[in-house]
Amino acid sequence: MINIRFFFGEPGSGRRALARYLASLSSRATEPFIVTMGSLSDDVTDNCLFSGSTKDPGLFEQAHNGVLFINELQDLSGAAQKTLLGFLEQGKYRLADNNEERTMNVRILSSAPSDFEGSTNGFRRDLMSHLSAVVIRVPPLRSYSEDVPDLLRYHVDLLVDSENLPFRRFSVAAQNRLRNYPWPGNIRELKNMVSRLLILGKEEEISLEEVELQLGPERQLDESVIQQDFLSMPLREAREHFERAYLKQQLTLCNGKVGQLAKRVGMERTHLYRKLRSLGVDFRQASSEN
């Protein structure tokens, strides 16, 4: 039996956490929850997904009776797409060492960026139709910014308990500032900021000045972005204008290094390269100028 859910959302928005939470509420709560990144290279596809061996189980075999979460689906190699589609269509596979036919009872959860459209990015349309049977859209943090104070308190308590960090509370001014911050890195960025503030601070109250220092110069978006009348544009055009200016500035702050940029904005490098090219951002020039 194969059950499928698909999570759309921005990097850092909590797609994996939501998938794990939903799994914990299901009948598979005590079964394996296996996570893999989408960027499986062609030469290890079979070994990663289906080992074909009784001695070295692949990811599907490890997730039998449980959940397999394929993260960043857009980076799945062509060979991996073909292998996965064959299994979804047949619901079974054969072991290479003894030719035994096996079926899998697994729930497949997968995720991709909110702007991912499989058919327009060279992704197999037939595989996409299988994987997007049930779509769940995970909103970015900025769309529910009124919850930021509660999320700050939650992550303070979580890090104090799990990491044994010193307890600190956010001042009202600091909370208000962060509630109005756009959070390009979403929940992941919030958690990392809370961790840094607990580690680096000394006073029990986290001040506005400390928060401003953590936000740093990147909080100031390019003036051309701020001055754009986005409300007069179609959604796709407005998004492209913002993403282009945002990534250009972040690339400058990373001295033109795409690897650093990928970590900074919370994107897989292969997807980031495609995004930069589609937006016309010349990362090679940015690198040569620094």
Radius of gyration: 22 Å
| Strands side by side in the biggest sheet | 2-3-6-1-7
CATH H-level superfamily of the largest domain: P-loop containing nucleotide triphosphate hydrolases
**Roughly what is the average pLDDT, rounded to an integer?**
80
Low-confidence residue ranges: 219-224, 286-290
What's the CATH class label of the largest domain? Answer: Alpha Beta
Label the structural class. Answer: alpha/beta
Total strand count, please?
Answer: 9
How would you characterize this protein structure?
With 290 residues, this protein is α/β, with parallel strands linked by helices. The chain has three domains: 2-137, Rossmann fold, CATH 3.40.50.300; 141-215, Helicase, Ruva Protein, domain 3 (Orthogonal Bundle); 223-288, Arc Repressor Mutant, subunit A. The protein is built from 14 helices and nine strands. The chain has helices at 15-24, 45-49, 59-62, 78-90, 125-131, 148-163, 172-179, 186-200, 208-215, 223-227, 235-253, 258-265, 269-279, 283-288; strands at 2-8, 33-37, 67-71, 92-94, 101-103, 106-112, 135-137, 169-170, 205-206. The strands form three sheets. The chain has a five-stranded parallel beta sheet with strand order 2-3-6-1-7. Strands 4-5 form a two-stranded antiparallel ribbon. A hairpin with a 6-residue loop joins strand 4 (92-94) and strand 5. The longest helix is centred in the last third of the chain and has 19 residues, at 235-253. The relative contact order is 0.12.
